[in-house]
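Q: Here's a chain of 314 amino acids. Please give me its 3D structure as tokens.
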Amino acid sequence: MLRSMLVAIGLTGMLLAASAAPAQTMFRPVAIVNDSAITGFDLAQRAQILVALGFTTANPDVLRAEALDRLIEDRLKEQEAKRLGLSSAQEDIDSAVAEYANLAGLSENEFRTALSAQGVTGQALNDMATAYVLWSQVVRSRFANRVEPGEADIDAEIALMQSRAGASYRVQEIDLPRTDAGQTDAETQALAERLYDSLSRGGDFDAAVKTYSRSPSAARGGDIGWVSTLQMPPDLADTLSALQPGEVSRPIPVSGGYSILKLVDRRVDQADSPDSASPELREEVRRRLVNVRASRLAEGLLQELRRDALIELR
């Protein structure tokens, strides 16, 4: 795992260097987000981190576009946090880095060491983690009173869960961002349909994950583990229930793009009714409702910040 990640990052560096304009210096701004500059050095560093986290592509332009888009969003998140007077603690930053390392299948020290060996600075990694921590604080600060469900909300969700057939599905996914590297939504949808046609005729799902998926799960071959119908929208449960193990779904529109799912296995579960639900289940449902609501509100806020920002690409 460690050696393969080092090789991938090294190749990324060569690809990025080969695609850079000769006159461009590493520290010249490639974008200005309001009054904050993103340099070529920032861009190269973020691209290498993305590869370490499972972003795979043979096209350096695709990688650069994805890295730049995430850096722009990070600048907006940091600026909103500064406006609200929020700050990050080092222990929270370290915890975020540990989460990234886990996605790469490494310990935090192994992850930092592997990146450092390829010239990625600790500051670049900490900057990405800081934006993540600050954004979490922004979301809590802005929406704390709007995401907490009441007891009636939890009862209703558990009743909905009970109304479904209790089942869990082992699933692999391919995640295609809606506008990856300048593609239009129509082009991404067309790619998703072509992939479905190939995969439904026996194409190599694992290879497609490595080539196309932009989800963190790509580092695990697209495996998202066992997912219960109690944890998914009814339409997704219906989609999976119609599949046999080994079959793939048609492209599913999701927030930010399209997903293709492969059913690996299924099993029958036992669901609780609202009256008999354990405190643990109620807490799990509460957390899930909070996460869903917070995610929707956060995405809306980020789009609002992008719309109102002065973003200059160079």
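Q: Can you summarize the key feature?
A: The chain has two domains: 2-147+306-313, 165-268.
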